[in-house]
Design a protein that fits this description.
- By secondary structure, the protein is mainly alpha-helical.
- The chain contains two helices and no strands.
- The longest helix is centred in the middle third of the chain and has 33 residues.
- The mean pLDDT is 82.
């Protein structure tokens, strides 16, 4: 299997580094791989929840849950001295 130019450049750069830095790069690569797998698992779970109807989303979701009083735009008495 042939390597892409990015793979070849990465390996060439890693070969120039001391062993302790190579170990750090390996640990970082494993971290990125784990994070990508976790994100994939979370996305799969979210899409499963949506298809199962467990999550509601869209316009009107909060209808009736929030009320705005008629005097919402009226000046507050606490700030009269600043107006």
């Amino acid at each position: 299997m042939s390597m892409s130019p990015v793979e070849r450049m990465t390996i060439d750069k890693i070969h120039t580094l001391p062993t302790d830095l190579q170990q750090q790069i390996l640990a970082f690569a494993e971290f990125i791989e784990l994070r990508a797998k976790s994100n994939l698992d979370a996305n799969i779970q979210a899409s499963t929840d949506l298809t199962a109807g467990n999550k509601r989303q869209g316009f009107g979701l909060w209808k009736g849950a929030i009320t705005i009083h008629d005097d919402f735009d009226e000046p507050l008495a606490d700030f009269e001295e600043y107006m």
